[in-house]
Amino acid sequence: MRASERAYQELREEILDGVLAPGTALAEVEQANRLGVSRTPVREALARLEADGLATAASARVLQVSELSPASIVALYELREALEEQAARLAATRRDPARFAELHERLTAAPQLLDDGDEGLRTYYDTVDALDGEIDAATANPMLVSALRSARLHSARVRRLARHNPERLRAAASEHLLIVEAIIAGDASLAAHASHVHLHMSLRHALASIESRQSDGHRVA
Amino acid sequence: MRASERAYQELREEILDGVLAPGTALAEVEQANRLGVSRTPVREALARLEADGLATAASARVLQVSELSPASIVALYELREALEEQAARLAATRRDPARFAELHERLTAAPQLLDDGDEGLRTYYDTVDALDGEIDAATANPMLVSALRSARLHSARVRRLARHNPERLRAAASEHLLIVEAIIAGDASLAAHASHVHLHMSLRHALASIESRQSDGHRVA
DNA sequence: CCGCGCTGAAGCGTATACATAAGTGGGGGA
DNA sequence: TCCCCCACTTATGTATACGCTTCAGCGCGG
């Protein structure tokens, strides 16, 4: 694999996982030494991170991991609303019902996974990610998909910040189920509205979760 | 200005203006010689163009100016629909009425500009761009704005491809006017629907215009 | 005492040199 | 004569070196 690609993925993972906390400075030489590659691929990686919005230029000379304030989370969800409602609408119009029928089964089984500990949780998230993938494929719109991908990057950060609340995840599964049913039925309007509802609930939970975490005195997971 | 920045802007302009036609290969050495800079800044410029979607990797070794097929134009408008409706909604909620009142005046005067030849046309487009800017500012959502900016890049290509039809531009001005009025009135729903209508009409015109151009035997403007 | 300017250093942007991989053309063998 | 393999060419990926910009700290002048 290309060194620039490895550097990018490594840095991205670390930012998403919170290893590199918001506000951390990303200097070329430092990261080049740390990652064991030269500055040129690091430069490319940092440029991509900035384009992704995961890093922000604090001044002309210093790049840092971008903050994840409640305000920016709200902004993220406003963007996701726009994109995911449209994606759901298009998917409902253009979907292959068979592919979503399979997802319907998996999602129906999903809540039970949450009793299976860490392994089950991973399978649960795999199912949710598979739903994203199927919707992407069904929209048949590369531009929309690429915008969605960018938004999901940031969602991954939020997901990690919010506590994994089994109760919330069970509710989320049933919200997802409704979206899938709407898509299978070819009901674009319902698919869009169900997506809206899901995002609304998800945002509400994320904000509450982060607020409670902060009042815990910034406890680190 | 930085060499990589100049290279990027130069290449972007040439792609948007059609100087570099879709399908043209973008080789590092060739462009470096042509633009009078070294390969490194060209590399960065090409990476940005690819991230923008203005260039596509045809194979592992060859990057080329991306195609602008009717299908991709439809996809672009589906994305813009999602983004601009949401932006209009948010702008209607958060706007400063005074700033849009000024735009309302300028847009009312816009149709007359179209009789003033090239200079007037430029002023007309400046007004439309100002509307975009005001909406961006009013949404108060950096993520949404950055997604919009990316979509507008591609719109600029489409705009150039479509013939400048005064009749269509006059209609577009009145569509914009309705959007502005809705924003001033704080009517989020109307702002979104008016944006949808505008995009629908704009897409219809763009597709018809391109089709007629192609049946002209690919006449170059 | 405050503000402007200088000087040093550190980091970034660019160029160039080198390594590597892929594609192509030619030659040899079947 | 055709096909396959090897070598060469070319372009990309990576590393390093150099020069310039910028920022911080200190000193001098008002």
Structure, explained:
The structure is a homodimer of 221-residue chains. Chain A is an all-alpha fold and 221 residues long. In chain A, helix 4 packs across helix 6 and helix 5 (97-113) runs antiparallel to helix 6. The first copy, chain A, has helices at residues 3-16, 28-35, 39-52, 70-94, 97-113, 117-139, 142-161, 166-185, 188-215; strands at residues 55-57, 63-65. Chain A is built from nine helices and two strands. The radius of gyration of chain A is 19 Å and the shape is globular. Chain A starts with a helix and ends in a 6-residue tail after the last helix. Chain A has a two-stranded antiparallel ribbon with strand order 1-2. Chain A binds chain B through residues 40, 43-44, 47-48, 51, 53, 72, 75-76, 78-79, 81-83, 85-86, 90, 141-144, 146-147, 150-151, 154, and chain B through 40, 43-44, 47-48, 51, 53, 72, 75-76, 78-79, 81-83, 85-86, 90, 141-144, 146-147, 150-151, 154. The first copy, chain A, binds a DNA duplex (30 and 30 nucleotides) through residues 2-4, 27-29, 37-41, 43, 59-62.
